[in-house]
């Protein structure tokens, strides 16, 4: 006996399966269904509702983001960083920088060509840009000394002695240029007397400190890293002095600010030989770490 549901009429079209359609017909129906008046599966009212929802949702999201950005920008000063010195990731000890820059760290060899009167084997454009920049005159610069100074102070390239460039960027001697990296708000501390000098400071620098008329400086030393390097490096001269004058600091984003530069001349090095050189910046508030190259620069020089 056939079982039937007394509540369902087998002939009712409501329960009959939908007519079979090809894929193309089904796709056309999806694009536009004339029976339901739907487009892409939704009626006009359904599309209006969902579009209204997303417009309101993204408008609120954009407004929330704008309020967050505004709040964050209120904590930022356009003229100075929020975190400075010890409260920042950079710290309170400026790094020592050189021109030219070894392109591959302390294992790189910087070669000086006497024929071309410049350094070779690295990006010479950086040195050219550096020398051109320091030879430009700017209205914001002022002549400074310890008695009276207005930052930014003038860096007088003519005081670089034998390292003063000719014809723009040509060098007549074996010269490198050193400066301290800019560190906002940093002010140098000074060694008060000979008893305050570190024991690791080279004797030549101790003698220079002893004979100096003005000791309020960040001192610089460059020498061979090992005893055999010291013997073939030859005499080293510093222009205009062996220290960065303290009156150039602090750096506070003054317009036209330039870091003071010490030009270092290697007078009579052994030619065609790799020489390991180490340069250090000396001040009570400058840390030195040879491994991290903090306050210290190690590189190899070769003079052709």
TrEMBL record:
Record's keyword annotation contains Lipid biosynthesis: no
Keywords in alphabetical order: Membrane, Signal-anchor, Transmembrane, Transmembrane helix
Membrane disposition: Single-pass type II membrane protein
Domain of life: Eukaryota
Gene3D superfamilies per record: Na, k-atpase alpha subunit
Endpoints of the signal sequence: none
Location relative to the cell: Membrane
Membrane-crossing segments per the record: 51-73
Pfam families on file: Na_K-ATPase (PF00287)
GO cellular component: sodium:potassium-exchanging ATPase complex
PANTHER family linked: NA_K-ATPASE BETA SUBUNIT ISOFORM 4-RELATED, SODIUM/POTASSIUM-DEPENDENT ATPASE BETA SUBUNIT
Family: Belongs to the X(+)/potassium ATPases subunit beta family.
Protein known as: Na/K-ATPase subunit beta 1
């Amino acid at each position: 006996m056939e079982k039937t549901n007394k509540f369902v009429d087998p002939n009712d079209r409501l329960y009959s399966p939908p007519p079979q359609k090809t894929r193309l017909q089904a796709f056309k129906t999806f694009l536009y269904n004339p029976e339901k008046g739907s487009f892409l599966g939704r009626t006009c009212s359904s599309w209006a509702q969902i579009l209204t929802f997303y417009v309101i949702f993204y408008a609120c999201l954009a407004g929330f983001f704008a309020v967050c950005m505004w709040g964050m920008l209120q904590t930022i000063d356009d003229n100075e960083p929020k975190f400075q010195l010890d409260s920042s990731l950079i710290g309170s000890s400026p790094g020592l920088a050189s021109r030219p820059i070894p392109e591959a760290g302390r294992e790189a060899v910087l070669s000086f060509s006497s024929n071309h009167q410049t350094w070779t084997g690295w990006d010479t454009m950086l040195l050219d840009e550096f020398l051109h920049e320091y030879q430009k005159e700017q209205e914001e610069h002022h002549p400074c000394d310890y008695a009276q100074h207005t930052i930014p102070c003038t860096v007088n390239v003519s005081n670089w002695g034998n390292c003063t460039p000719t014809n723009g960027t040509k060098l007549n001697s074996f010269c490198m240029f050193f400066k301290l990296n800019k560190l906002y708000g940093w002010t140098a501390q000074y060694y008060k007397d000979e008893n305050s000098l570190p024991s690791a400071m080279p004797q030549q620098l101790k003698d220079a400190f002893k004979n100096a008329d003005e000791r309020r400086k960040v001192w610089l030393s460059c020498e061979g890293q090992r005893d055999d390097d010291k013997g073939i490096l030859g005499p080293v001269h510093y222009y205009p002095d062996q220290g960065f004058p303290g009156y150039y600091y602090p750096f506070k984003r003054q317009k036209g600010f330039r870091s003071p530069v010490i030009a270092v001349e290697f007078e009579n090095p052994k030619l065609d030989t790799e020489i390991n050189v180490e340069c250090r910046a000396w001040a009570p508030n400058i840390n030195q770490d040879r491994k991290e190259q903090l306050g210290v620069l190690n590189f190899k020089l070769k003079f052709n």
